Every structure is written in structure tokens, then in C-alpha cells.
Predict the 3D structure of the following.
Amino acid sequence: MADADGFEGSYEGIGEMLNSDWMIAEMVKRGEAVKERAKELAPEYEGTDKDEHRGRYKRSFFVHGYAHGGQNNDRAVAVIGNDSPEAIFVEKGVVRRRKDGTLSVQPGQHVLARALYETMGGKLPLASKADEAAGIITGLRKRTPKP
């Protein structure tokens, strides 16, 4: 069906456009901006002892672009991630029980989420509500003995 200007859209043409090489390149370009911001936000161990993995998390960000992605496999996408072994702990945090029964909580840094939101013009706070709750729970459980 044509509109008032005589333009007639084509779903097939739109699908081709959304999966075109130039659209993949644009998604990768945007992904690279997120990756660079993530590198800026990434924590790096600054202790005095020698750590052979120092900086590995910061060096392990990647961007992959491809066609037929997204929820419906109908558009170009870029995937930004980090493939270092410690990435899950840096991103999501970790809770450990010490030998004395208290909990040690290291909140997640949410580097990729923060990088995405900041690259899009927004700001995401460092700590999420879940991390804040974990901090409160840790404070309450300091006297809780190990089961």
C-alpha cells in the first residue's frame, strides 16, 4: 500500500536492509564504542604483590557483529562481551563464607551494563539494588555461625 507521497514499503526490502553489510558495520561501530567505555570502567588489580593475570579482564573485551540476530533473528547485531575467566565475578560479584562463618561480599561492578548505558547517554549507578541488599545482609549476618 502506497502512502500520500507514493512510497510503497517492502517488508522483504526492510529485512534485507536490517541484515545488510553496512548495518552490521554500524552495529559493530556502536559496539566498539561500548567496548572502549567498558575498558575505561574496568577495574584493574593495583596491589603490591605480583599477579600474573593483572589486566587480563581489561584486555579481554570483544565485539562480534553478524546478521540474522536479535530476538527474532531478523536484524544485524553486535555482541559485546568479556571472555576472561574472572569476568562473571567482576560483572556479577561474589559472596563467600569465611572460615569464621561470616560472609564476604564483593559487589558486582556491572562494567558492561554501565558502559552500554553511558555510551547511550545515560548513567547507571555503580551498585545495583541487589548489591546494596547483599551489603545489608552481610552486616546482619556477621554474627551468624556457619551451619
